[in-house]
Amino acid sequence: MVDIATRVYNHKWKIDPIVRSLIDTDFYKLLMCQSVFRNKPDTQVTFSLINRSTHIPLANLIDEGELREQLDHIRSLSLSRGESTWLRGNTFYGKRQMFRPDFMEWFEGMRLPPYHLERKGDQFELTFEGKWHEVMLWEIPALAVLMELRSRAALGPMGKFELQVLYARAMTRVWEKIEALREVDNLSIADFGTRRRHSYLWQDWCVQAMHEGLGNAFTGTSNCRIAMMRELEAIGTNAHELPMVYAALADDDEELARAPYDVLSDWHDEHDGNLRIILPDTYGTKGFLDHAPDWLAGWTGIRIDSGDPATAAQTAIDWWRARGEDPTTKRVIFSDGLDVEKIKELHAQFAGKAKISFGWGTLLTNDFRGLVPNDALAPFSLVCKAVSANGRPTVKLSDNPNKAMGPADEIARYKRVFGVGEQAAQKVIV
Amino acid sequence: MVDIATRVYNHKWKIDPIVRSLIDTDFYKLLMCQSVFRNKPDTQVTFSLINRSTHIPLANLIDEGELREQLDHIRSLSLSRGESTWLRGNTFYGKRQMFRPDFMEWFEGMRLPPYHLERKGDQFELTFEGKWHEVMLWEIPALAVLMELRSRAALGPMGKFELQVLYARAMTRVWEKIEALREVDNLSIADFGTRRRHSYLWQDWCVQAMHEGLGNAFTGTSNCRIAMMRELEAIGTNAHELPMVYAALADDDEELARAPYDVLSDWHDEHDGNLRIILPDTYGTKGFLDHAPDWLAGWTGIRIDSGDPATAAQTAIDWWRARGEDPTTKRVIFSDGLDVEKIKELHAQFAGKAKISFGWGTLLTNDFRGLVPNDALAPFSLVCKAVSANGRPTVKLSDNPNKAMGPADEIARYKRVFGVGEQAAQKVIV
């Protein structure tokens, strides 16, 4: 039986919305948002979309009007009662009331601020200006909208069965990855694939397949909405935007050198246990650890997000040992450019030396490589970053010069202040 | 929105029926049924299920109670008004009113006769006794029920996503076959896979995928229900049961020798054009053609269903030429043990020498080989045959001694009467 009311209701949709919830976002955005809401509530920040894959002409593939409709739809969203209940009532990392009442009250009334969209050649210029803790919440939905509109552009001309076989092939691929990962003893892996996913429904499928296929080895998803709907753990801690903005706000070189530690000092006051995860690479992992205060060595673990992951992990292990810590009690989370082979390789290399986890992103939730002509669904490197704070440009160096961003003179200054020398370039996959 | 009424209605199902329509059967069964209804209305025939794959212990895999429920459900079916309208109003092979009013009137009132089911070791003995034109209609639903219950037994322990990936893999396999067949110029291929399909829904999917993927090269399906629902051509002509029963009814060797031609004489009176397709192998292709009356050489084509297909096709081509016919105007339909490689090979070998068609069966609608542990979904060789007529045993020789059936002394007699010498054994795939 066709439910006529449902059918008629569906007819009334103006668009098929890509982002349907304010918590269809990464968990760490909410943690960071709360931190900023408390510590830097007056900071003005600009976020900007950057397509690092310049060979993908987004403005030719995606209709500007449709993009505006999707972004306008996101601006119409507010936290639903059930979402608010989940954030207030759930345990995160084993802890209740992770989100404070004053933050929740503000979040319940929050709407995303305006966006600025302009076509520039065959790319879009998409920026968000405003209070840091508001504009930062644009990052994930903006990326998800652009990724999915680009997917839709490639899927548009396909037939019904062709589409079904496309997804059949993609499902088979994900399942084969899961089968390969089943062979890894004591695996601990989470989904970090929200931002560059193929689509919401596809991420949701991948997460559920991981859950069925890997059981307890699958530790959860970074996506709050999916974590809520599927009753899974929400996973994530903090990201580069914190040190980038703190650094941009520094008035002189001395403050700049201290900024990355100030971030973690604020974090230290707010969080403990498994939320105390160092992200050391914003201005070079080696220098960051060398100059780190001793209390940071007491933190629970480290996340490796750029450069050669094995080198970075070994650097961290050596650092812990040098600071009198037992590395085997520490957690090392790999989260950059992972796929099955890399996961198995890193696991084999570091099992026993530290507790190993993986945050698996784009090649979990968007591996459609080779499945359509011209590889029109291959993932690409789209980011949305804080580019300025209170009018000053931000800088990111990371452990891979191909991921560096900011004005050239500022990059040079940061390199000097943080003592970053030659870096080995790594291909940015996604 | 959940449609509550639908949900409640679904709760009321006693079983999930496998066969839901009397025309979920092969088109040629209906053509033959009409022919028998006219020419041999009083013949008493016994059909019997035969599992040629004795290593598959059907009675251990399938619950007898469930099997009875499915068979009982089939006995409750009658022709629906829409199905009757379709049979009466549709064009088949370009012709209207293929089914005569007296036949349709009888068919509209028909219910399938009782079955006899008994467990014998780890196999089932399943037989149908009664008027030929009634019991013959058990063949396809009986096979479909056993095939699908065996599929369900293998699928039962599987998880939700495991199942989805299983079908994803099977879909990908079918689609890759379709992609390979797209490269064959002037292909003409139909679905003949009802009897040993994985399931009804799966056959329906395969047919639709063939339709989308091959366009006009896909000429239709033998399944009447699917042809009706998907607005495709229903395909099929006649089968071995006609000469087998006619032969069993023969009173002496002379009548026996004439029986296969008597069948086609009756057919000749009823049908013309593309329905005049010779099935020559029941008692050996070579002898059948050598002794055939000249009017048979005027028929439209031939169907190759056992033995080495290339040899049989060449035999037919030589025979047409010897009888003064132009083989390039004749149709050769291959329908035995086909898969993509064989189809491409036969097409390459005979294109230009005759009009070539393919009736693709089990390896279209049931190729789950290698997709589950112990290959528990691999197709197997289950048949349901007329084993006696008016108390006399039937015999089939075919061009493959591995497909021969009947009592040994009768097989010897038939071989003598039809002058069948040494035959090359072919592995029976499905």
Walk me through the structure:
Chains A, B: Residues 188-421 form the Nicotinate/nicotinamide phosphoribosyltransferase domain. Chains A, B: Catalyzes the synthesis of beta-nicotinate D-ribonucleotide from nicotinate and 5-phospho-D-ribose 1-phosphate at the expense of ATP. Chains A, B: Its EC number is 6.3.4.21. The structure is a homodimer of 430-residue chains. Chain A is built from 19 helices and 13 strands. Chain A is α/β, with parallel strands linked by helices and 430 residues long. Chain A has 2 domains: 13-156 and 378-393, nicotinate phosphoribosyltransferase (Alpha-Beta Barrel); 160-365, nicotinate phosphoribosyltransferase. In chain A, the strands form 3 sheets. Chain A has a 6-stranded parallel sheet with strand order 7-6-11-10-9-8. In chain A, strands 4-5-1-12-13 form a 5-stranded antiparallel sheet. In chain A, helix 4 (64-75) runs antiparallel to helix 8 (139-155). Chain A is globular, with a radius of gyration of 21 Å. The A-B interface holds A 1, 3, 5-6, 9, 159-162, 164-165, 167-169, 171-172, 175, 208-209, 212-213 and B 1, 3, 5-6, 9, 159-162, 164-165, 167-169, 171-172, 175, 208-209, 212-213.
Question: What are the main properties of this structure?
Answer:
homodimer, 430 residues, alpha/beta, nicotinate phosphoribosyltransferase, 2 domains, 6-stranded parallel beta sheet, 5-stranded antiparallel beta sheet, 19 helices, globular
